[in-house]
Amino acid sequence: MSETRIDLGVFDGHNAAACLSIDGRVVAALQEERLTRLKNDVGTPVRAIEWLATEYELDLSQITQVAVASRYVARMERPEDLLKGFDRRYEGTSRYRLATWLGRQDRYRNWRTGSRIQQRTETLTRLGLPRDRIQYYDHHETHAATAYHGLRQDDGDYLVITLDGGGDGLSGSVWKGAGGQLHPLAQVSQRDSLGELYAVVTHLLGFKPLEHEFKIMGMAPYAADEYAEPVAAILRRYLRVERQGLRWICGVREPIAQVGRRLEKDLRRVRFDSICAGLQKFTEEAMTQWVSAWIQETGLRRVLVAGGVFMNVKASKVICELPEVDFFAAFPSCGDESLPFGACYLATAGRGVMPDGLTHAYLGPEVGLEESRAVVADAGERVHVEEPGDMADRVAELLADGQIVARASGKMEFGARALGSRSILADPINQDVVRVINRMIKKRDFWMPFAPVVRRQEAAAYFRNPKDLPSPYMMNTFDSTDRRTEFMAAVHNADLTARPQLLEDGQNPGYEAILDRFAQRTGRHVLLNTSFNLHGEPVVSGAADAVRVLLNSGLRYLVLGDLLVTKRGAP
Questions:
Q1: pLDDT score of 93
Q2: pLDDT digit string, tens, across residues 303-342
Q3: Contact at 8 Å (CB) between 76 and 18?
Q4: What is the dihedral of CA 244, 248, 252, 253, to 10 degrees?
Q5: What distance in Å separates the CA atoms of residue 166 and residue 172, rounded to the nearest whole number?
Q6: How far apart are the C-alpha atoms of 350 and 7, rounded to whole Å?
Q7: Are strands 6-11 and 65-69 parallel, antiparallel or unpaired?
Q8: Which domains does the chain have, with CATH numbers?
Q9: Structure pTM?
Q10: Which segments of 453-508 does DSSP mark as H helices, in order?
Q11: Where are the beta strands (DSSP E) in 345-461?
Q12: What is the DSSP letter of 95?
């Protein structure tokens, strides 16, 4: 009998995370932020690693391989350090720019990479992980591995594309995935980074880069094309895809990461919504041209993608609609937080074993009955607790009656999207529910839509998806059908699109049952789903987090595992 192989995947940069793979299958994954309660927490994911070890009763010294994503990550103590780094780009000459001007960029990168690997290795070994089993993997190969090994449906050929702000000197890559192997086709220099350009504009508009880009995307449809085009024309001077469509070309002297001062001048006195629309228009055009060119170059019509730029679901929508695309899927929460998956996949593939693909994203801590009872007991008279015989029917009753219900039940989903286990649910037929949820807890920007959830077999009634593409992780956007009046609270008001969760059978039975009971009561198969968290905080993790948020918000109802908790005195 062969020895069990246990791989620990680690990403220790911005939005740090860890995952555990046993004999080629990822069985658990967790972002550090969920335990530290610091959104997008940075550095070695110590608590996430400790949780994985405790949950699976592991001696860390017995890990087969510690698969670390990215050969280089910047040293940061807190998430705020990232924003400070963007601010410093306006203060004189950075070491990176000096190294570039002196023609020593490669030498400088090699020096800093070697130094950081030594520091990171020391930190990991102090946790009890074996030094001789720590292996570092290239940033974009790891992204590509998440897409190919995590999402491929068979051993046939796929076009695999990555695109992000940057990592290990690159901002993108193109691969052919075939027969369980990734074959490199092209690379995009970090100097020519679309992700960096989007982040710089996000920063200039007063938002947090690498976090609030989705707010730019959400505002974009509100401005007409006549206002978007002049901004897009400016951005095409900074970065473009060559005429043949296969390469990215930087049109300014400095690396894209350093164009903030130039952009300040070029975009001065341009309206906020026009900038958002122009940036999104430019992004969609460039990405579509690039992907289309590589499909024509390779003949590969099934496309798998990863990297933070593909969190831009509106750009992905345009790519999906290309006639030359037969299939498209983006790895769930495909920013750097998902890199530990790819590192584990590469560790498995490196042993000549085919990794198992991803079947669901419910890979985090579970809300247990004993834990739940202890937490509500501590809440005392502030809450009323019941244990319904049919939880799904009780919740559906509340939702059909117009109530808003938070749900912290089962294993926590991984990544940026709430997928029902740590969600707030509501009936989306009444658009006023958006205002109510925002006043209760979310405090989202007024232009940002919420998302719908529907079983995939019912989705055709609500969304135009002619290629029947999967979207269980909210990584695609679709046009709504004429039945949008049944879920207007979860539709973008400007362009009538939606980013739905198309729930697959068996992924989350308790969640599916709520949808079914709601449909039986109302004749409608769609609910509003948004993440369960206080504004500015990570999504809740355990029972204590869930009850704390209940008591410190306007929420009244909470599904806590097998318990239904009602806050007394709530309006």
A1: 46
A2: 999 999 999 999 999 999 999 999 999 999 999 999 999 9
A3: no
A4: -120
A5: 7
A6: 12
A7: parallel
A8: 6-139+352-359 (3.30.420), 141-334 (3.30.420.40), 364-567 (3.90.870.20)
A9: 0.95
A10: none
A11: 362-367, 383-386, 405-408, 410-413, 422-426, 451-455
A12: H
